Structure formats: C-alpha cells, structure tokens
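Margin note from the TA: students keep mixing up input and output lines. Inputs are the sequences; the output is the structure of the whole complex. Example:
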Amino acid sequence: MLDPASIDALKKSHLFSGYAARDMAEISRFAKLVYLESHAVLFRESEPCSAIYCLVEGLVKLCLYGPKRQEKIVEIIGPDQTFGEAAMFSGQGYPVSAVAIEDSRLIAVDAFSFMRYLRQRPELNWTMMAMLSRRMHQLVGQVKSMSLHNAEQKVAKYLMDYYDDDFPTRPVSNLPPRRADLAAVLGITAETLCRVIANFRQRGWITTLDNAIVVSSPVDMRGLIMDVRQPGESSNRRKDVAVPSVDHLPAAG
Amino acid sequence: MLDPASIDALKKSHLFSGYAARDMAEISRFAKLVYLESHAVLFRESEPCSAIYCLVEGLVKLCLYGPKRQEKIVEIIGPDQTFGEAAMFSGQGYPVSAVAIEDSRLIAVDAFSFMRYLRQRPELNWTMMAMLSRRMHQLVGQVKSMSLHNAEQKVAKYLMDYYDDDFPTRPVSNLPPRRADLAAVLGITAETLCRVIANFRQRGWITTLDNAIVVSSPVDMRGLIMDVRQPGESSNRRKDVAVPSVDHLPAAG
DNA sequence: GAAATACGTTGATCTAGATCAAGGGCCATT
DNA sequence: AATGGCCCTTGATCTAGATCAACGTATTTC
C-alpha cells in the first residue's frame, strides 16, 4: 500500500503518467517503497522478476558482468524512470543486474499482481508497448555503438546524445557521477576515456570543470561520429565489405 | 489481399499463431506478398516503418552499418519469423536495415492499418508484448557478448546457444549460410572467425563438414564461456597444453 | 594532523584482433 | 579443359585500446 505522495511520484514516470486515478489506486495496493544504500544490489541478472521498479530519488545502474567481473553498464536510471518491465513479460528473469550508485528510494510494483491487473485492462498496455519499443531502439543503438564505433566516436556520440543545441554553453546533462561509470557505459576503460577527453580538450572541442563537460565544437564532434575526413585523404577502402545495393527496392506500401 | 495459403503461412509465425480466423481474415485485407532477390534491400535504418514483415521462405539479415560501411548483423531472420514490430510502435523508424541473403518471399502487413486494428482489439497485444520482451532479452544478450566476451567466447557462446543437449551428434542448427555472415553476427572479422574455428577443431572440441559444425565437447565449450581456469594458474600466460589430437576428422571436404 | 582511501590523470608496455596479402577449393560458364 | 568468381583458409604485420604502474589531489577516518 502506497501513500498519496508516492502515488504522485509514480505518476511522474512515463509508464504510469497516462493512468486514471482509479487505476493508480488499484496499483498502489500491490506497490511498496524500497530503500537502497549506494552499492546495494536490487536484483541480479537472471533472477526471476518479482517486481518492476520506479526510481523516486537517487541513481541506479543496470549492468552486466563478464566472466572476469568486468562491468558493462547498459543504462543509468534517474528519478522518475521505470525499469524491469521487459523481464515481467518475457518470463525469463531480469536480463541485467540493478545496483544503486547513490542512496535511492524506489517504488516496487509487484509483477504478478500487476500482470493480473493488466489482463483485465488491456488498453493500459499501449504505454507499455511504447516503453518497450523505445527501449529496444536504445538497445540497438548500443549494439551499433559497441560494434561499429571506436573509443573517440563512442565518447563523442554519448556527449552529442545529451547535448542541447538550444543551449550550447550548458554542460552536457545526465553525465554519470564518476568517470569510471561513464567508461563502463561506453564499454571502454577509465584510462582510455580519460585520454579521449584530454584529446578533445586539447583540440578545443570541449571544456571541462569537475565532472561537467561543455561541448564547444558540436560540428567537429558530429563530424567525428560520421567519420568525415579531409578530402584527398585516402579513406581505408575495402572492397569486400557488404554494401546493400540501391536497386531492387521493393514496393512495400 | 492475401490468398488462403499465405494466411496459413502467416499463422505459422509466433506473432500471429494465436489469432482467431476472423482476425486473420481482417488482417489479410491489408497484407500482401513481397518477393526479394538475394542482396535486395527491404528497408534501411531510420526509414519510417511502413509495414511489419513475416518471412515465408528464404533468409533475411537485420543489420547496422558503421561510418566505414562495416556491417554488424543484429539478427538473421528465418522462415516463419516476423520482424519490424518494434519500429511500428516506437514511431522512430526501423532501427536496422533489412537485406535478403537468399531469394525470399515475405508477407508485408501494413503498419498503419494493423495499428488501427490493434486499437480495436487490445487483447491481441499480449503476443506482441511477449515478442518485444523476448527480443529485448536477446538484444541485451548481444550487448553482453559484444562487450564482455573475446572472440573465442563469442563463437563458443553462439554455438552453444544453438546446441541441443538431446542430440549431441547433430550439427549446430541455424548456422548462417556463409562464414562471413556468422562473423558479422559475432562482430569479428571472417579471418578471426576462421582461426577460432581452426583452434577449436585442433583441440578436438568441434568437428566441421562444409558449413556444418558439430560440437564434440560441450563441457569445454561451456567452460570457455564461463572462463574457468585451472586453480593456481596465472591468467595471462598462454598454456601450451598437449591436447590429444583427434584424428578421426573426415578431412573436412 | 597523519594515514588511509578513492578517483582522476598520465606514461609505458602488451596483446587480441584487425588489416593486408597470398594461396586453394569449388562451382559455373565458355 | 581452361577461366574466372566466390569463399574459405592461413600467414605476416599493424594498431587501438587494454593493462600495468606511478603519482596527484580530494575526502574520509582515526
């Protein structure tokens, strides 16, 4: 059972924002508050999904661990974001681990009860679908970044994803609190990240102050991502890479 | 408008298998057949989603291209599989490109009409949700494999994912038709893949015949993925274990 | 205030895997 | 039978980024 303030907090999330008051009242009956200290583990990869979560306050990372304990952060969850929905539907357990990186307060919505409720009200699934689709896109973006970009491009891509063209002098928002976290998000080491940032600073493309980073040459950054090179410079031409041909385009309408 | 045989083909897919006859009749009204020659492009990354597809016959790759045209295959679609659903809901366009790697026959279901129909029948969304969730899991698995495994582990993981414990002597199923495709799936070069396979063969962990691969030591393969090492042994030094050579190989060709 | 701890930074190596290059088997076409 | 195209395979290098190591600067602990 949830207090009114927490119900309001839930409603601030994208997933629940469209829900009617009576839906929220019902859902609050099988939701509860959870407190996590920094570094505390909320759930681990492959654990069965007992609840989906909405972060109210603090910061949580969703991550994967390799055989040698290397960490890959799949996503950093901030306040008003929900997570765990996909696991609820797939019935395959959580695909990632969730670990607090700041002291956090969360709302846990019991998965079984929530599923039962959704079965009664299938219209509510529209926001859920949108949620899952958006997350899939983001995940595909990660796959792309991991497999097709080098370290500089990864950093540039990340910074430009959070860069706001309307406020060029504003520091990039939502940066992870520690450099090591950003490195784990990008799938590179902290040392490499540090060197890349130093390079960008030397070239005058960014300026830094503590954790904050201000992009001062978005054009160059974007150029780097798209791998534009000076004319005349021979780009590594490989003939054997597959390039989809332009013809044969089907009339898919 | 679809002929009865094609409607049957649609129903063989996981997405439509639970649909009632009258739903299928309705859907067939805004579905049509599409034929692709090998190498033909069905759609490209970021193109708006006009339809979702069900492959009836042939083989299609979903892939991403880097700034230098490097290819990363996100998934290889076989008969009776559907794709494009996520793009339909996200409203962000297709996250990947789709290219035929064999002459293919597909059914295209118009996205707009299908969405409209789903709005009338929200219960139908349950299979859709399951679909999306499963695909998300798979994608997270890819992220993990890309960021936390080395080349040998990637290959081993792939082979064991398609290995059937009940039929140990059966070749790994669903292997891509060409080695280069498998390499693009794993995010390594064809040369590296070739060397890894040669190593596995020398160690007696697999046997090969043409494209087919039979895993003969699943225990070792699984051990490699989990990075088990002999106690007391330093991780870096390459150990030159005398592997008893398995000489009953059918000369591969 | 000294010591310990945690991070960020920089430099020096090392290495897994990419890249480059050269055959070789197989099939289709002539 | 010869030719050419397409892959697969193997060998020889090259290199981006990991790893190892040392140091600086805060911040916390006693």
